[in-house]
Design brief:
Blueprint (H helix, E strand, L loop, with lengths): L1 E7 L5 H17 L3 E11 L2 E10 L2 E9 L2 H28 L10
Parallel strand pairs: 1-2
Antiparallel strand pairs: 2-3, 3-4
Helix pairs in contact: 1-2
């Protein structure tokens, strides 16, 4: 997994970089087909904003979170991203197995 971390009106400190990479390990544990993650951290007046664009095989997933604290925004971002990654994983496994409820034939 490639991680691109950029800051907009914000200096990326080693502490923030370590925090983001540690939180994104949870995504890698749930779904190991993540190719690239681009995270943009920005400050807009008193709002801290974290955005992530995750490139997985066959789809790009975009998530953003805003909060008054940057670490809380990163936590919210990872929570949202985790839910979307798990949903994508379930959908792709249903397609692969062909066990969709709509297409199941009952006798």
């Amino acid at each position: 997994m490639n991680l691109n971390l950029t800051g907009h009106h914000l200096e990326i400190t080693p502490a923030i970089r370590d925090y983001v990479s540690a939180k994104l390990e949870r995504i890698n544990r749930h779904f190991d087909h993540v190719i690239e993650v681009s995270v943009v951290l920005s400050v807009e007046k008193l709002r801290q904003k974290a955005e992530a664009n995750v490139h997985v095989r066959g789809k790009d997933i975009f998530v953003e979170a805003k909060d008054a604290d940057m670490y809380a925004a990163i936590d919210g971002l990872v929570d949202k991203l985790d839910r979307q990654i798990l949903r994508h994983k379930e959908k792709s496994s249903e397609r692969r197995n062909g066990s969709s409820i709509k297409h199941r034939v009952t006798e």
